[in-house]
Amino acid sequence: MTTSTTHAGDTLTRNALTVLQPGFDGTTAVPDWVRRRIGEGLASVSLFGRNVRTAEQVTALTAQLKAERDDLLIAIDEESGDVTRLEVRTGSSYPGNHALGAVDDTALTRDVAADLGRRLAACGINFNWAPSADVNANPDNPVIGVRSFGADPLLVARHTAAYIEGMQSSGVATSAKHFPGHGDTAVDSHHSVPLIDVDRDVLESRDLAPFRAAIAAGTRAVMSAHLLVPALDPENPATVSRRILTGLLREELGYDGLIVTDGMDMHAIAGTYGFERGCVLAIAAGADAICTGGGPSDEGTVLRLRDAFVEAVRSGELSEERLADAAERVRSLANWAVSSRGSGAADRSGGAPDTEIGLVAARRALTVTRGETYAAPVTEAPYVAAFSPVANIAVGDETPWGVSAALERLLPGTESGTYSGDGAGAKALAAAGDRRIVAVVRDAHRHTWMSDAVKTLVSARPDTVVVEMGVPQSAPTGAIHIATRGAARVCGEAAAEAVTGG
User: Fold this and answer.
1) Is 201 a catalytic residue?
2) Active site includes 32?
3) Catalytic residue chosen out of the listed positions 190, 226, 447, 481
4) Catalytic residue (choose from 82, 134, 207, 262)
5) Measured between alpha carbons, how far is residue 20 from residues 9, 85, 292, 457 in Å?
6) Would you say residue 424 has pLDDT above 80?
7) Each residue of 145-172: pLDDT tens digit?
């Protein structure tokens, strides 16, 4: 454990703890160190997939946390769609942004977000690191993709606003991300610093439009991105850029809510500045809350960061006023969450979650393209060949995806296999035998081996059904081509219905 250079009761130390949003390990019992630090000023904690088993279990866990501090912010990264923590082991009951953008019904987006918000609130969660307000301008983007509402800035803006209105009507604060826009990059900031090298006019008309809409819709938080945007700041990534967080977001756009960072253990920051120094620089730049718990989840991390803030104030690198302002914004959001709960916001938004709205939305998002021949529905148990890319860190590899489970329920006896790399198509063809093949892909346009596999199957077996569960950038192929625009569980269920003619 780190040796502290501070005293638990002083204001500076409390403020240093208040700006942290750490994670912890465990699903049934809150660690003693978390309880102690809450007593010393920690105002937020974060839940990740490692903390989730069932909704009932999460509710019991958050009840323990709130017994320590009733106004505790309990955050989660629950975008729905491909990025789900609450349903990390089953797949999401709601389609993600790209599917909702394809339907382009803002009332539906608002209703889906409100329903998800009710589910989060029922579990004791009051702060959601969503929605993604990124415009997916680069089809080769490896980390945003179906997490974006689309490539049209105006569409993304109106659905970002609708999502925020819906979720916050349930008493759960939103965090529009990843400011100033993570859509136009082919680099994942989990691994290195992406470069958005466009002029200011493009940023204004494209990337910033959804964030302006988010602010107008009253989003309670905005999440910064670990991006280098030379038109805004030629030297510093957004998360540690005073020009971007204070100059642009606060002063030009007039935003007065909480600014929370993306995960500070991500390599774009930790690998460039060091973990502790990066966090200090972020607060100095204008961030108010530090997301730390995706990777590190121990007491030592919290103590090191607390002490780093205290020492930065004492050395003059970070002003005490800036740290105090950041801490006050965290407390302000916590007060909003308590007042929203107390005023019955969740009840006003419609009561209990709707178990069907996610599937209804997923069905509406489907695009089914049928060839001139062999386009009959699949009526006998098929062979499902899933061509699986390496999952990006935001999505993770714990969450199941595809159509196998849903098809097995509709057509008992369905068999499946997962393939990747060169020769994947030939291997799947050999395993399928004489069964009809359902090929399932995810962003086939970004993976040459995957598109080659589909060509192999369709050439040898023209009755092959292709299900694209990523961004449908490639031309439709196969006897039936189904674009789901996401890999949520409900997207797989909707696709399975379409495969079988339902």
Assistant:
1) no
2) no
3) 190
4) 262
5) 17, 20, 7, 51
6) yes
7) 999 999 999 999 999 999 999 999 999 9
